[in-house]
TrEMBL record:
Keywords: ATP-binding, Kinase, Nucleotide-binding, Transferase, Tyrosine-protein kinase. Its EC number is 2.7.10.2. It comes from Dongia sedimenti. Residues 92-215 form the AAA domain. InterPro entries: AAA_dom, Bact_polysacc_biosynth/exp, P-loop_NTPase, Wzc-like_C. This is CpsD/CapB family tyrosine-protein kinase. It comes from the Bacteria. Residues 19-35 have a biased composition (Polar residues). The keyword Kinase applies. One of its GO terms (molecular function) is non-membrane spanning protein tyrosine kinase activity. Residues 1-35 are annotated as: Disordered.
Length: 264
């Protein structure tokens, strides 16, 4: 397992002398994608709902803000993850932590944004934390349908997809489920959806934000559907006991890396 604790420490040191961005600063982030070539998908069947820059900044989605030193950390993480996935010839990963507050959702979202900046990749970020979904809120999005609508057979998957105004990034949001999240995530329809998403685009990386490993049964029920796991721990929060329990639960799965988040 690899981690980027040193990079995080370096970024925290740099950030201590870095002026915080205002809402207007976020709105003026350089559009690095407009001048590059590569995979340039047309979103003709996907709703385009531009992310709220202020909300994204408040939620620590900084991977596309090239002036923020923490964005460098996510570029390091992107390189490590993509190299590992290429070596293993896989395209789907689940991002999880041991418990609530480890930062797995923020990591998944920032990793997706960072990979989308790579002109050779497209990214699908899927919110599978059906008890406490938050991906759409982090981007400041207000979609009308989520993955649970598809899993209930109420709509097509294309009706749930949202492009947050960033080229090469698509979000599949979720809303709070009504007490049946474990059944939905481990259902045959979910397994079929993962296969379909994996096979549809050869250049697409699919990142699933899943619930904390030790707090629900949903994650273990879903992991057989993906090819790799990125485990997130938080310094000063995740305990050794939790790490040992998580390692035991993940022993039969392909863990592509461990990210040690800095303390809050």
């Amino acid at each position: 397992m690899e981690h980027i604790e040193k990079a995080l420490a370096r970024a925290r040191e740099m950030r201590s002398g870095h002026r915080g961005s205002t809402a207007n600063d976020s709105a003026r982030r350089p559009n690095t994608q407009a001048s590059v070539h590569g995979v340039m998908p047309d979103y003709t069947e996907t709703a385009v709902l531009p992310a709220n820059a202020r909300k994204a900044s408040e939620e620590r989605l900084v991977a596309d803000d090239l002036r923020n030193p923490v964005a460098d950390v996510y570029r390091v993480l992107r390189a490590q993850v993509l190299q590992r996935m290429k070596k293993l010839d896989i395209s789907t990963i689940a991002v999880t932590g041991a418990s609530h507050g480890d930062g797995a959702t923020t990591t998944a979202a920032n990793l997706a944004i960072s990979i989308a900046l790579d002109v050779n990749q497209t990214v699908l970020l899927v919110d599978l934390n059906l008890r406490e979904p938050s991906i759409h809120r982090k981007f400041g999005l207000t979609p009308t349908k989520g993955i649970e609508n598809y899993l209930h057979g109420e709509c097509d998957i294309k009706d749930c997809l949202v492009n947050p105004g960033m080229r090469r990034l698509v979000v599949l949001p979720a809303f709070a489920s009504k007490g049946e999240s474990a059944e939905l995530i481990s259902s045959p329809r979910m397994a079929a959806l993962v296969r379909e998403l994996r096979n549809r685009y050869h250049d697409r990386i699919i990142i699933f934000d899943v619930p904390p490993l030790l707090e629900s049964g949903e994650t273990l029920g879903f992991l057989p559907n993906v090819e790799g796991v990125l485990f997130v721990a938080r310094s000063g929060h995740t305990t050794k006991t939790e790490l040992d329990r998580a390692a035991d639960l993940l022993r039969n799965y392909q863990v592509i890396g461990t990210l040690l988040n800095g303390s809050r």
